[in-house]
Amino acid sequence: MKIFTTVAETVAYAKEQKEAGKTIGLCPTMGALHEGHMTLMRAARKACDIVIASVFVNPVQFGPNEDYDKYPRQFDADCEKLKAEGVDAVFHPSPEEMYPAGYGTYITVENGITDILCGARRPGHFRGVATVVTKLMNITRADKAFFGQKDAQQVAVVRRFVADLNLPVEVCMVPICREESGLARSSRNSYMSAEEKQAAVVLSRSLRKAKAAYEAGERSAEALKAVTRAELEGEPMAKVDYVDLYTYPALQAADTVTEPCLLAIAVYIGKTRLIDNVILG
Fold first, then answer.
1. What is the pLDDT of residues 232-279, one digit of tens each?
2. Could you confirm whether 37 is annotated as catalytic?
3. Which residue, 30, 80, 213, 254, could crosslink 218 as a Cys pair with Cβ 3.0–4.6 Å?
4. Catalytic residue among 34, 37, 92, 125
């Protein structure tokens, strides 16, 4: 497995692979890799000749009071996991390599889909995501890029700017990977105590209840959100940030579920903010 820290060597490697007729799958990550990330690598391995993973904690997607400095970084352990999955190359740049002195270009999606859900709570977050993902796609010359459904809003945003900018990349969404308890796997799970992790199972439980209500015939968005919120509020350690429902992937407001819809939640367990979702219909 090759490890690159500069844009130039990654570009040269990708050029060499493309000239050999190989397809390239990109898995963008911020490291602290877990089984959820490995499902992305496996999907890329199945679909593409070459798999490139990026490990980069992207400073421009963090707000001033967010957890950039304490975000878990464990590059050596990450490389062991990536090597075991047969990843061909890892791009691990410094912030200065990605945003050198004088850097001044950012990508903003302005059709409203970044102003809801996590975008409403984290101003500038998706500007940072769109900028870094575009750069990674260009650097690696990716044919396909793989993202997890846990970040379903992010996937919708990436698909939007890829279409708008005519980028020749297929955006692939991989289902949520969960722990045995039902908790969606996340690098931020490491922030929680054992007691908090147990309490956090309420996120997936609330979504299962809403899905069961949908499958029993409930189509009212307000009713489905109410089922979810009631379950969340029954957990003393949970503080609800949002419970929202939008069409997917367009992310438009919906009163009734008549097409695929994203039921998305964000909840604080202690000081840790967790997200989860289910796609209904």
1. 999 999 999 999 999 999 999 999 999 999 999 999 999 999 999 999
2. yes
3. 213
4. 37
